[in-house]
Amino acid sequence: MGVSRSGFYKWKKRDPSKRDINREQMIATVKEVHQKHRTHGYRWTAAFIRINMGISISDNYAYKCFRYLGMRAETLHRVRRMPRKVRDKYPNLIYSTWETVDRPRQVIVSDMTVFKFWVFYFEVTFYFDVFTKELLTHKVAERRGSRDQYIDGLDDVRKMLRGSPDPTILHTDQGSVYASLAYNQLIKDTNIIRSMSRAGKPTDNPVNESLNGWIKEELVIDFNIEQCRSREEFKATLDRYRKFYNEQRPCFAIGYDTPLNYRRRFERGELPHKNTFADRTPSPEPKFVRERRKLSDKEKDKPPDNLPVHF
Predict the structure, then answer these.
(1) Which position among 104, 115, 128, 239 has the lowest Cβ density within 10 Å, counted as fewest Cβ atoms?
(2) Are residues 150 and 250 located together in one domain of the fold?
(3) Residue 26: is its pLDDT beyond 60?
(4) Which residue from 231, 224, 241, 171 is spatially nearest to 201, judged by alpha carbons?
(5) Are both 206 and 138 inside the same structural domain?
(6) Can you state the angle between helices 231-247 and 259-267, rounded to 10 degrees?
(7) Do 122 and 212 reside in the same domain of the chain?
């Protein structure tokens, strides 16, 4: 270490510095105060010392003293940490297998978004077809916190699916209305199967989250929805945008086709009819993690570059 023997022993036998003495005194003071007032933490202890003892001590210094002494505030209210119980009312049937959806009306997603501008606060509920990206229906709440727009939108979806022999998965988040008995009672005798995202996982519904963002941008920038000065004008703008979105707006996810034409092409047999959704393997593990593992496994299986070459 470049230290002489004599220098090391001289350093070892040195008298404690003023800083060391002050540190020991401060630690003793913090310990003494805490032993008398065990219900309080380091911030309260630091304030008590400053006010009643006239000693300058920062909250951060008191925190370090607490850590050094292994002390913490005591309380009669014990914190009970229990493993998370499964509260999901309906299982997640999709996870990260959205690209396997292979026909219209196979998976429908719904979510609520808010428009806030001028003096208005509008809650709008959208229903999208995952395969065609078609905006099936939208409803505007008549008042803040209303639940009618969710149920009215679901009623529209029920009418669209009437007579269809194939099952449809309706995927939503765990909002109180989506999980309510009244909402799910509407689909009790239908071919609609419920699916829900995990709590606090907006990435479990990426289609809706992405489309909500695009729709808001286009409504504000291209359709000037912030210039609306009445609820009727706002609704009329939404209706006009929905027609544009479904019939005129090219969508990147479906090869820059329009949602309505893409569905018609599928119905005419111009698009290949796959069977990928039935063979999906739902997993809570993110897709990018699985792909990274596959690449890692491929790298392990590759032979080393320095192997001898035999001719």
Answers:
(1) 239
(2) yes
(3) yes
(4) 171
(5) yes
(6) 40
(7) yes
Per-residue pLDDT at 83 exceeds 70: no
CA distance between the termini of the chain = 55
DSSP string for residues in the chain: ----HHHHHHHHTPPPPHHHHHHHHHHHHHHHHHHH-TTS-HHHHHHHHHHHT-----HHHHHHHHHHHT-----SS-----PPP---SS--S-TT-GGG--STTSEEEEEEEEEEETTEEEEEEEEEETTT--EEEEEE-SSTT-SHHHHHHHHHHHHHHTT--S-EEEEE---TTTTSHHHHHTTTTSSEEEEEPPTT-GGGSHHHHHHHHHHHHHHHHTS-GGG--SHHHHHHHHHHHHHHHHHT--BGGGTSB-HHHHHHHHHTT-S----TTTT----SS-HHHHHHHHHHHHHHHSPPTTPPP--
Give a yes or no: residue 292 inside a domain.
no
Antiparallel, parallel or unpaired: β 135-140 and 107-117: unpaired
Note whether 136 and 232 are same-domain residues. yes
pTM for the complete prediction?
Answer: 0.70
Count the domains in the chain. Answer: 2
Return the structure tokens found at 204: 């479990």
Q: Is the dihedral of CA 201, 207, 208, 209 positive or negative?
A: positive
Residue with tokens 């007579």: 163
Angstrom CA distances, 258 to 25, 32, 187, 207, stand at 76, 74, 29, 16
For 32, the token pair is 């003494």
Indicate if the pLDDT at residue 311 is higher than 80.
Answer: no
Distance, CA of 168 to chain centre: 24
Supply the range of the domain harboring residue 42. 15-69
